[in-house]
Amino acid sequence: MTIVTSNIDLAAQFLRDGKLVAFATETVYGLGADATNDLAVARIFDVKERPQFNPLIVHVASNEAAMALGRFDSHATRLAEGFWPGPLTLVVPRTAACSASQLVSAGLDSIALRVPQHPMARELLVAVQRPVAAPSANLSGRISPTRPEHVVAALGDRIEMVLDGGECLVGVESTIISCLDASPVLLRPGGVTRESIETELGQTLDTSCQVGAAPVAPGQLAAHYAPRAAVRLNARDARAGEALLAFGSPVPGQAETMRNLSESGDLVEAAANLFKFLHELDAAGVDGIAVMPIPDTGLGVAINDRLQRASVRISDQ
Ligand code: TXA
Ligand code: MG
Question: How far lies 103's CA from each of 26, 34, 115, 294, in Å?
Fold first, then answer.
């Protein structure tokens, strides 16, 4: 049974224990997980039935906490000072010391950060003392929830807890601004108007990458993560010069460099390890990465989608 409660300390304890807790923000209810816990973050994708690994927004209690995770240029600093806490999300480069799971960034070297305004969300984040990853608490492709009953109806017994913070007053998602390049880019319109952001910055926003209210799939992002090494799918073993990305039991003694997504064949564990292992194998300097077959069910669909994209080299496109 999903517990519906207004006990903030209990919700914080659940999050620290790796459980999923939906909580109110001023925009919509978020489906929260400890952003530093790979497995908890992977469960978000499982529960939402997302067919792809969209990067997630990471929520923190203060601007200082945000600045430990992301690098803020002058535009990002200005927007954070002007609109946080509030319905604004900033996409910035990850810091070298960023403690958030690579899965929240879907393997990208950027991170989406937000300091929400809702008093219960703020108290929860202070109590958790960790960054909290949270997409809207609905099934993929459905309407975002603005009341606790919406969350219970949509996600039923799939999550451990709903922290009841009443009705969300803004009711639409946060505005997302990317501060990765010289000029800030509006990625998604939302709770903070474009006009007020332009006034704060003293310049007009680039809106050419705008995606409406629809989520941005990593494939639509200008720079989604692609390994340098060639990725070969449905491999049984590694060839000379290749590292092995295994799933289940690999043929023994095949690869010098190997990571196993999940020895027991657990797809949630595999999702939790995917981007971390791809980065590690790529950094090992191998020519190629041989990937064992992964079942195309549940989270396997998102894993295979991502691996498929990684296997298409830029020159092949
Ligand atoms: O109001 C909101 O923003 C709510 C509450 C819970 O905070 N959250 C929300 O999350 O709407 P979600 O996951 O439904 O939408 C997050 C959006 C997606 O379109 C995703 O692609 C984009 O943020 N995003 C996250 N990280 C990104 C990144 N590193 N680069 C570009 N886009 C990113
Ligand atoms: Mg959403």
Answer: 25, 12, 20, 18
At residue 272, φ and ψ (nearest 5 deg) are -60, -30
Residues within 5 A (CB) of ion ligand 2: 136
* Chain centroid to CA 104: 3
Nearest to 43 by CA among 16, 10, 19, 14: 19
Residue nearest to atom 19 of ligand 1 (CA): 215
The pairing of strands 230-232 and 288-291 is parallel
Predicted model pTM: 0.91
Distance 145 CA to ligand 2 centre (A): 9
* Predicted local confidence at residue 126, as pLDDT: 98
Three-state SS for 259?
strand
Residue among 89, 172, 179 whose CB has most ligand 1 atoms within 8 A, to mutate: 89
> Which residues, in sequence order, are bridge partners of residue 201?
none
Q: What is the pLDDT of residue 51?
A: 82
Question: % helix / strand / coil in the chain, to the nearest 5?
Answer: 35, 20, 50
- Tell how far the Cα of 313 is from the centroid of ligand 2, in angstroms: 29
pLDDT band, residue 313 (cuts 50/70/90): low
Chain segment 30-63, per-residue pLDDT in tens: 999 999 999 999 999 999 998 889 999 999 999 9
Residue with tokens 């807790």: 21
Report the C-alpha gap between 95 and 309 in whole angstroms: 25
Map residue 269 onto helix, strand or coil.
Answer: helix
